Amino acid sequence: MTKTNIAKRQDIEKRWYLIDAEDKTLGRLASKVAKILMGKNKPIWSPNVDTGDFVVVINAEKVKVTGKKLDGKMYYRHSGYLGSLKTESMRSLMNRRPEMVVNLAVRGMLPKTKLGNQMIKKLKVYRGSEHPHQAQNPQIIEV
Question: 43 lies in a domain?
Fold first, then answer.
């Protein structure tokens, strides 16, 4: 009889990874980052436990998008008041806050639960090549 091992919080070892987003396609980058945040790259993965690692993404302003997404893709936000729906194109959001574009792309690939909210907190995205996580000694990953 085989046993199924379920991950426990004390068994999980959290690591830090560094990904350079320069000249990477946004969707492919986001899917790789989401897989690491969920912990699906580990043999100890469980669907009900956060087994993922921390991910630092640098050079978010140099990420590529294909097709006509820069002008065609719109981001929406709503304050909850009547008539307050705001729309913004990907081009203007990339100019204003490129780290938000990467963050939203990864967030869309994570579970829409409390566990997904825990996972997105382990994502750190920065506009340039500088980041304050040198002390964690992140391991560089090629996408």
Answer: yes
The HSE-up count of residue 39 (CA atoms within 13 Å, CB side) is 22
Token readout for 39 is 């912990």
Looking at the DSSP assignment, which residues form a beta bridge with residue 140?
18
How far is Cα 122 from Cα 133, in angstroms, rounded to an integer? 12
Does a structural domain hold residue 70? no
Is residue 6 one of the residues assigned to a domain?
no
In one letter, which amino acid is 107?
R
Count of domains in the chain?
Answer: 1
* DSSP at 76: E
9, pLDDT greater than 90: no
CATH code of the domain in which 107 resides: 3.90.1180.10
Average pLDDT estimate for 65-82: 96
Rounded to an integer, the average pLDDT of 86-114 is: 97
Range of the domain at 37: 14-65+91-141
- What is the spatial distance between Cα 63 and Cα 115, in angstroms, rounded to a whole number? 27
